[in-house]
Structures are given as C-alpha cells and as structure tokens.
Design goal:
156 residues; alpha+beta; four-stranded antiparallel beta sheet; 37% helix
Length: 156
C-alpha cells in the first residue's frame, strides 16, 4: 500500500464520529514486520481455544492499526468502534484490503499492554478496542452475504 493510501485511511479514521466530538481514540500504526509478527502471536494467545503456531490472526497484513480509546469517557467503546468502522470503509474505498480483528481489550488490559501504553506515552486509562490489519488480498473477496429482510424497520 502506498503512503498516500495509508494517509487517506488514517485521516478518515480521525473524522469518525465520537461522543460530544471528544476525538478521544488513538490509532497506533505498526509496519515493522517483526513487531506485527509479535503482535500476531500475542493476539493468538487470547483465542478461546488452542490455535496452531502458524495461524496468523492478522492474515499476513503489512500494516497493523490498533485503536485505543479513553475509558474515562462514557462513550469510549462506541467511539473506538466508530473509528474501526471508518478505517475499514476507508481502506475499501482506496482499494486496500482490511480485516477488523478483536482481542485488543484483552491485550491492553494485561500487564504487558499497560507497559506498552506507558512506553508509547499513552495514558493507562486507554483501553484496546480493536485492530485493523491492512494489505492486499491474495484472493478475490467473497460476495457479501444477502442482507436480512428485517434489517430496516419503518415505524410511524
């Protein structure tokens, strides 16, 4: 992915709606392959069942985005989820594949996670909301599932 595509995706994420316009979430960008590999193993360790060592929850993505949000705000989870959604949609808009990956909350509530926050200069009140991994898919994307008929309800 080009620097321009990444910049576009990240900037879009900063425009995600947040409660009271507080803009509290932070997007951590990781592109070092070894660091991404370490985060992949760490994320895999939180799977609810045993996973093979070669299973990569980040699907070989070349850029890892971690969304954190300030738990001192009442809408921090919603704010972080809003950023994750915008990042995924923005990546699609510029032709970059993405995948939203969970377990950031587990990671950043751990001792190691708190130490990383401190190392990165991010207050301990920030919690992991999710990851977005970016790259180019090596297969065609599947067709979206049909939308449920009762997805939208009109009321008077």
């Amino acid at each position: 992915m080009s620097d321009e595509e990444l910049k576009t995706i990240l900037e879009a994420g900063t425009y995600a709606p947040t409660g009271r316009g507080a803009q509290s979430p932070k997007i951590v960008v990781i592109q070092n392959p070894e660091t991404i590999k370490e985060f992949s193993a760490w994320n895999r360790s939180y799977f609810p069942n045993e996973m093979p060592e070669d299973m990569d929850p980040f699907y070989g993505g070349k850029t890892l985005l971690i969304v954190l949000a300030n738990s001192e705000l009442p809408t921090y989870v919603e704010d972080g989820v809003s950023v994750l959604s915008v990042l995924v949609n923005a990546s699609h808009a510029v032709g970059v594949a993405s995948c939203w990956v969970h377990r950031a909350r587990d990671e950043f509530s751990s001792k190691k996670g708190k130490a990383l926050l401190k190392e990165w200069g991010i207050p301990e009140s920030y919690e992991g909301i999710g990851h977005v991994v970016l790259g180019y898919a090596d297969t065609e994307a599947p067709e979206p599932q049909p939308r449920k008929e009762d997805y939208i309800h009109y009321v008077d």
